[in-house]
C-alpha cells in the first residue's frame, strides 16, 4: 500500500469513528430533550387563542381582553381567532387536533362539560382532548321574572310550579346550556315540572320575559343586570353557592330552600392534550397573575363575571366532576339534543 493510500485509509477510519461516536451520543440523549428545550424557550412566536363563537359575543370580548393582557406578560402576540359553528364544536375540535406545542389554545365555557352527555362522540371530550391551563371566571346564573308574576321568592316560584305542573314557563338560550341545566336541577331537587322555552342564543331570551309572554328566565347575570337595575325585571334567586357582589340582597337557591344546590357558568383556557407541563405552567402563572390585577377584577364584574384562577389541576378536576354531574342530571331528566 502506497503512502498516499495509507494516509487516505487513516482519514476514512477517523471519519468512521466520529460518525459512530455521534450515533452513540444521539442514542443516549434523553428522549424529549429537544421538546424540553422548546418548552423552556416558549413562546418563540405568536400564540393563537381560539374562540368557538362569533366575534362580538361575550366570550369573544373576554378572550380579546385577556389576550391583550397575556401578550404583555409573555412577550408575544396573542391572536384571537373566531371559529364558530356546531354549538362551539368546530372551534374546540380544531384545538383538540392542533399540535400540542402551546401555540394553539382555546377559550372554553361550561357547556363543554355538558355537550358529551348530549352529543356523544360527535363533540370533544374535554377531559380526554384538552390539557387544562386555568379557570378564568365564574359567571352566576340568576332566575329573573317579569314584575307581574305573583312570586317574589324561590319558595313562591316552586309552589306556583307545583300548582300548575308543566305550565309555568321559563326561557334559556337553548337545550343543554348551563342555564337549562340549572333549571332542570331545580326541577329535580324540588320535585316540580315546568315548561322549558329554549331560544336560539342568548340575545332574545329576555325579550318575551320583559313583555310578560314568558314569566321566568334562567339567564346569565351580565345580560340581566341592566333590566334589574331599571326595575323591568325582578331577581328571584342566584344559582351560585354564595350571594353575588352585584346582587347582595338576592338569596341563593340553596338559601331559599334547596340546600346544597349550586351551579355556575364559567370560562377557562385549555391547550391540546399532550402539551408539555412546562408550557402549561408558564401560561397558568401568567394568567393567574393577570386575574389578580384590580383592573381585571373590576372589568370582569362589569361583564357579570368574577375572576376565578387556581391551579391547572383544580381546573382539570372541575371539568371531570362536572362532566359526571351533568350527565346524571341529563339522563334523569331525559334531556336530548333535539
SSE layout:
Layout: H1 3-28, H2 33-40, E1 47-51, H3 58-74, E2 78-82, H4 89-96, E3 104-109, H5 115-119, H6 126-129, E4 130-139, E5 141-145, H7 154-163, E6 169-172, H8 178-190, E7 195-198, H9 207-211, E8 216-220, H10 221-229, E9 234-238, E10 265-272, H11 277-291, H12 294-302, E11 306-307, H13 312-333
Helix pairs in contact: 3-11, 8-13
Explain the overall architecture.
The relative contact order is 0.16. This protein is an alpha/beta fold. The longest helix has 26 residues, at 3-28. Helix content is 45%, strand content 17%. It is globular. The chain folds into two domains: 39-139 and 265-333, D-Maltodextrin-Binding Protein, domain 2; 141-238, Periplasmic binding protein-like II (D-Maltodextrin-Binding Protein, domain 2), CATH 3.40.190. It starts with a helix and ends in a 5-residue tail after the last helix.
Shape: globular
User: How many distinct helices?
Assistant: 13
Whole-number count of domains: 2
Q: Give the termini separation.
A: 87 Å
Beta-strand portion reads: 15-25%
Strand line-up of the largest beta sheet? 2-1-3-10-4-11
Short description, anyone?
The chain has 338 residues and is of the alpha/beta class.
Core attributes:
338 residues; D-Maltodextrin-Binding Protein, domain 2; six-stranded mixed β-sheet; 11 strands
